[in-house]
Design a protein that fits this description.
The structure is a single chain. By secondary structure, the chain is of the alpha+beta class. The protein has 15 helices and 10 strands. Strands 1, 2, 3, 4, 5, 6, 7, 8, 9 and 10 form a 10-stranded mixed beta sheet that branches. Helix 3 crosses helix 13, helix 4 packs across helix 6 and helix 6 packs across helix 13. The two termini are 26 Å apart.
């Protein structure tokens, strides 16, 4: 039988198999399994993510065309009923654990963020993934809607989601941030919108050496303590040192805060920016808050390019399994981009992989060519020393 070292085969080589098997053993997920193991489930679901396949029947048909290459992917059977049963019954925690192992490897190769400050920069937010309530009755939200909520902490070094939590849509992002142990290191800068407003939590961040930059409430009540000099021609109209007024607010956050008033460039509407950092230049703080929008771009990217809006199963376990395998696919793409130092965007890389996933191309050569050179990138003996 000829050997096909396909792009998919090389991608699977980047997965730490021994660690994945250990996670499977911890959950006893392969007990009494004869034909379709957790790793085979991962292979099929990962391929569906990277190819953009929408249904169980489409997955079965697409893989059936390449049945001669199943052996090299470790597959023995691909039946839609078997895959549906696996997604419904195999614990989704397996793929959550794999995601964080892949993330650890990826972080060691991630480039630093674009800002000229040494502090780690993260952004925190959540996005809704809408579901049909009649099909997903467990996702009940506001009585007439169904949804789950994807909470994320995005590290601007490589734009990697360092903490991901999937909850019902009823869970507020602030409560999740407080209760789910988001990894905020001392001296890091956390960016979030005013949906996270909680003065006691602000004090908690300050006590742990974490800087935050957020949008101030419109009706914020405060006492003016002092002012910083304003930079010229910057759009910053006020840079004040304040203390919160009101008995409850003072109890929750007794220390001083910094309040910047910035004019929005297009509408010239004043925006209040609240922070506990008194040393950074006002212009840098304004630029950092503007960069908070990058987490919204991340959410938009994964919704448009990964399969997390239409699902292959209706149970909660099937939905969570698909979301976590989608996140694994995202980290694998980032890992390849960082390792290969490719100048292609992440979207371009995902498209290259999608079109050559079951073809015998070398990943190293594939990401170094243009679209016109792609037919010449075929290698009879592809290697992946770069990713070893």
């Amino acid at each position: 039988m000829p050997h096909y070292n396909t792009v998919m085969n090389q991608l699977l080589g980047l997965i730490p198999r021994h660690e994945f098997d250990r996670i499977v053993r911890e959950h006893q997920a392969d007990r009494n399994v004869k034909k379709f193991s957790c790793f085979q489930q991962l292979v099929v679901m990962l391929l569906a993510q990277l190819r953009g396949l929408d249904s169980l029947r489409e997955i079965e048909t697409a893989l059936g065309v390449h049945k001669s290459r199943w052996y090299h992917l470790g597959l023995k059977t691909v039946k839609r009923s078997t895959l549906a049963d696996a997604n419904s019954s195999r614990p989704w925690r397996i793929y959550e654990g794999l995601y964080y192992r892949l993330l650890e490897r990826c972080q060691s190769f991630a480039p630093r963020h674009r800002f000229k400050i040494p502090n780690p920069i993260v952004s925190m937010d959540a996005t809704m993934i809408n579901l049909c309530l009649s099909v997903f009755p467990w996702s009940n939200y506001q009585n007439t809607k169904g949804a789950v909520k994807l909470h994320c902490q995005l590290d601007y070094a490589g734009h990697l989601p360092t903490r991901v939590v999937v909850t019902t849509a009823r869970r507020h992002e602030l409560k999740v941030a407080q209760e789910e142990d988001f990894p905020l290191r001392p001296d890091s800068i956390a960016l979030f919108d005013r949906g996270f407003t909680d003065y006691a939590w602000y004090q908690h961040l300050t006590d742990h050496g974490v800087w935050f930059i957020t949008r101030a409430r419109k009706n914020i009540d405060y006492t003016l303590l002092g002012q910083h000099p304003l930079p010229e021609k910057s759009g910053i109209v006020a840079d004040e040192i304040i203390s919160l007024a009101g008995k409850k607010a003072q109890q929750d956050h007794p220390g001083p805060l910094r309040l910047l008033t910035v004019l929005e460039p297009r509408t010239l509407k004043p925006i209040g920016i609240l922070t506990n950092n008194f040393s950074l230049d006002a212009e840098i703080i304004a630029e950092l808050y503007k960069a908070r929008w990058e987490i919204e771009i991340f959410f938009k990217w994964i919704k448009q390019n990964l399969k997390i809006k239409s699902f292959l199963g209706t149970s909660k376990n099937a939905v969570l399994t698909q979301i976590w395998i989608a996140m694994c696919a995202y980290v694998l793409l980032c890992y390849i981009k960082f390792q290969s130092r490719s100048k292609h965007t992440l979207l371009e890389l995902s498209r290259l992989i999608r079109e050559t996933l079951l073809s015998p191309f070398s990943l190293v050569d594939l990401f170094r060519v243009t679209a016109k050179q792609l037919p010449m990138a075929r290698s009879p003996n592809p290697q992946l020393e770069l990713f070893a």
